Amino acid sequence: MKKPHYSIMIVSAFFAIYVIWGSTYLLNKILVSEVSPLYLAAIRFISAGFLIFLIAKFMKYDLAISKRQFINTVIAGFLFLAYGNGVFVWALKYVDSGFGALLASTQPLFVLFLMRTLYGQKILPKAIIGVVLGIFGMILLVHQQGLDFNENSFIGILMIFSCVLCWSYASVFVSKNEFPVNQFVSAGYQMITAGILLLLASLTLGETWLAPNQWSMPAQVSMLLLILFGSIIAFTSFNYLLKVVSPEKVSTSAYVNPVIALILGWYVLDEQISVQSMIAALILLTGVYFINRKKRLFIK
What is the per-residue pLDDT across 223-278, written as a single tens digit (0 to 9) for each? Predict the structure, then answer.
């Protein structure tokens, strides 16, 4: 009798990391059209962080961490959320959500590059094929006559790539340093510290602060969904899946998220999907597949 319940949990968790994470690009795009980007990201992560702590306290998780762990969570929070997410949301003012999601799917390429340059690890041939395909896909994606690109669009693209580089370095940093054993607690600290940093950055840059009751209904609903689903449920599902299924299967979210983002951007916001974008996406995601299809990517 336990097996069907176990299967439902796994299917539900995959739905979360596929659809919820894929939909966050659309939700951020809706919000950033009327709410200052750093300010909205700060509200999202501070709210989610406090909710995580409340849940962790209710579940009797130990919230105590060492000084070193706290410093590492602050660094990771900045890299993943304050810069990586905050600047990404800002860039969505100038780039379609689906297009931004495709650019973000290049993260495995950046991780391989960092592991090679920082640690001198030799990359296996199949991973090199993935890198070559990924670079070719990015070139096709960015150089399109059919897209309405302007100076701000290219700035947005460059900033998104800087965010992806930030996420990639953060992934390497987390794998090499000490963090709280409980991933739920670690995420809570990262969200709170990142939210505070984003709030300070928003204040320093003089962003307009609108109280949530002054936002439109779509913006309010988008923020609620980002806090509850994007920042709490999807993250918890991700960690659950890492414990019950292979990492290779969990990493398939990298293939599905851009597809969900493209479809939602087209359906809800009437964003255009060019033939060249679809071809570039196929090539790019094939490259990501070559990189992720096996756990071992480097020659020891």
Answer: 999 999 988 888 778 767 766 776 556 666 766 777 788 788 888 877 777 787 78
283 lies in which domain range? 2-299
Residue pair 36/207 in contact (Cβ under 8 Å)? The answer is: yes
Burial class (CB in 10 A: 0-12, 13-18, 19+), 106: buried
CA distance 221 to 150: 31
Tell me the pLDDT tens digit for each residue of 137-170. Answer: 767 766 665 555 566 778 888 899 899 888 888 8
What total number of domains does the chain contain?
1
How far is Cα 188 from Cα 46, in angstroms, rounded to an integer? 9
* Cβ-contact 261, 26 below 8 angstroms: yes
Could you tell me how far CA 271 lies from the centroid of its own chain?
20
Q: Would you call 115 helix, strand, or coil by DSSP?
A: helix
